Sequence to fold (261 residues):
Amino acid sequence: MGSFTEWEWFVQQFKILSSVDLTAYKRPQMERRINSFMRTVNVSNYKKFIDILSSDRDIYIRFLKHITINVSEFFRNPRHWSILEREIIPLLLRERKSLKIWSAGCSTGEEAYSLAMLFEEKRVNLTDKILATDIDREVLKKAGEGVYTAKAVQNVPPNYISKYFTRDGDVYRVVDRLKERVSFRYQDLLRDRFNRGYDIILCRNVVIYFTEEAKQVLYQKFADALSNRGILFIGSTEQIFQAKDLNLQPIATFFYQKYGL
Ligand SMILES: C[S@@+](CC[C@H](N)C(=O)[O-])C[C@H]1O[C@@H](n2cnc3c(N)ncnc32)[C@H](O)[C@@H]1O
Fold:
């Protein structure tokens, strides 16, 4: 086999098939997740697995879902949302009349709609719709529909529920007025170019399986995409090493501010 292992072959073939670059993800975790999925479809080698992924659309979509892990919540980590509301937004509005916002790795939309509710409540002007992006087209579809279970909305304050959702049997539907504030779009954070001038970028619980190198490249791209003194809001288990090299300064736990040169 030489130095080209079965794993490397699989990664190469999967990239051709899906354009997802698994080399940017931490290998042990990824391999484990992939092997566990292979067991569920009864295949034990990568060659056979690639054949199945190429021919069975349903398994292919389930597999993408399995490796991307889409769990999300409204107002996930409420203490951080309270810092966003009480400290970060007022800080930004001291020198701006409106804000440009991006939820990167938005999954099924809970984060983007939480932002939309918060800005609506605080009467914050937005430059544009909130941009919400993900690599998984299935979750983007769900996000756009804006339909959630009672369990999913349990963290949403009751007065927000009555204003921003309509109850329909067992489910809660986001009202059109809120939906119109968000634009859900496909994007691969590892491959695609970013727009610029964002005042707040949220990238939370997305990079957990990225390698250190991939994270560093991504954080550099985020730093470039931020407006001067814009804020990067990251997940509660994450930290940016060498933030200084990226002209980012920690200003609260999980919030980094870009400073000008
Ligand atoms: C755990 S969810 C996080 C959702 C939300 N940000 C939160 O904190 O609740 C992670 C999301 O990152 C997305 N993701 C993973 N790799 C990605 C990539 N290369 N580009 C864009 N999104 C990616 C996954 O599809 C998944 O929906």
Summary: The longest strand covers residues 226-234. The chain has ten helices and ten strands. The chain has a mean pLDDT of 94. The chain has two domains: 6-68, 78-258.
